[in-house]
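hi support,

uploading two proteins for the ticket. first:
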Amino acid sequence: MVMLTTVHGDDSGHDDSGDYDSDDDDSGDDYKDRDMKWYLGCDDHFNNNAASSICKELGFKDGRTFPVLKKMASGLDWEKLFFGWSHISCDYPDAKMMSQHCHAREYEDVMEMYGSEAVCTSNDPIAVQCFEEPAHFTIDV
């Protein structure tokens, strides 16, 4: 599973729409010393481009979404873990998570917009499977 952070402070990348899009450069260096709290990401609208982007930022060559297995979720202390992000997606598989090509909404904002339809449970945190080699596909016609 993947834990995500939110940045507290005046320049948190938020706009009134609830989307988190950063127009800053892709380095992320300006976020290193800020007060950060870690959250789970909800898998609603999570896509393979975002999974690939997360894995690449962790130093892997590629990645994909991966279903959270009961065994993975059963060892977590759900009273101490909270969902903070939802609707996480990227337009391209090589986009930086902090770029304008990746998008996310704060979980509280999604709950306000969609109510109980947006509730995330222990089966819903995002998980990625990362690879040392990029995925290759062969199509025989």
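and the second one:
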Amino acid sequence: FFLMIRRPPRSTLSSSSAASDVYKRQVHGFINEANKKIYELSRTKEEMHGMGTTAVVAVVNDGKAYIANVGDSRAYVISGENIYQITKDHSMVQEMVDEGQITKTQARVHPRKNIITKALSLIHISEPTRLLSISYAVFCLKKKKKKK
């Protein structure tokens, strides 16, 4: 599923805080739009009844990435030899980790590790507040120095 990304007018980006808010709203808007379209397809096309999907959305501007996810789709940062997960899963097992019921190590092999608690089209379009709790990350990107 693809959405067109448009850069907001410069007049809306008068400060870094305002820019951050604009890009967060843009990311949230992309997820809402995808949710609406997928939800409507699942209601109007019999072969798509009950479908849903997870998603990661990123808007990159001026060395910062504004990232959001729904479900267990993840965003990672690769730095040198290291890989870091920067989004948080919306899953039953992640909730158990958050509540201290199990450890991250136990979560990796838990029999219910693939049960997600959020997905696009499974969040009814009349309940937009449920999308407000999607995970966000803002990540500063470093440009690699050119070798001489």
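thanks. also noticed: Helices lie at 16-44, 92-98, 104-109.
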